[in-house]
């Protein structure tokens, strides 16, 4: 991905992304830009962020999900949030390596 001002561009010569499910953890400014970039390539988008702007998510066509749902269902996931000591977000499905 290449940042170009406020827009995040993913090279358009990537093949095989159409129809993949991308989970975005953290749906702030950067998370929304990443989600939009993958959506433009034909990916389905799910996001996990309790403070997300629901209207921005609807505009992109993104679906709200839990962290565990994203880990279990996404073909790929992108973590676009700051981790802090007060709030742990790690929780892996039972069948995934820890």
Walk me through the topology:
Elements: E1 2-4, E2 7-9, E3 21-25, H1 29-40, E4 44-48, H2 54-60, E5 62-64, H3 67-73, E6 76-79
Parallel strand pairs: 3-4, 3-6, 4-5
Antiparallel strand pairs: 1-2
Shape: globular
Read across the widest sheet, the strand sequence of neighbours is 5-4-3-6
- First-last Cα distance: 27 Å
How many distinct beta strands?
Answer: 6
Report the CATH C-level class of the domain at 17-79: Alpha Beta
Low-confidence stretches: 84-98
Write a structural description.
Helices cover 27% and strands 23% of the residues. Strand 3 (21-25), helix 1 and strand 4 form a beta-alpha-beta unit. Mean pLDDT is 78; it is low at 84-98. It is of the alpha/beta class. The strands form 2 sheets. Strands 5-4-3-6 form a 4-stranded parallel β-sheet, sandwiched between helices. It has helices spanning 29-40, 54-60, 67-73, and strands at residues 2-4, 7-9, 21-25, 44-48, 62-64, 76-79. The chain has a domain at 17-79: Rossmann fold (3-Layer(aba) Sandwich).
């Amino acid at each position: 991905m290449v940042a170009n001002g406020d827009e995040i561009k993913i090279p358009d010569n990537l093949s095989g992304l159409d129809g993949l499910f991308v989970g975005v953890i953290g749906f702030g400014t950067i998370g929304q830009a990443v989600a939009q970039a993958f959506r433009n390539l034909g990916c389905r988008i799910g996001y996990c962020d309790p403070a997300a702007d629901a209207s921005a998510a609807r505009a992109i066509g993104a679906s709200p999900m839990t962290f565990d749902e994203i880990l279990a269902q996404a073909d790929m996931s992108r973590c676009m949030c700051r981790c802090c000591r007060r709030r742990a977000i790690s929780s892996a499905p039972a069948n995934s390596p820890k």
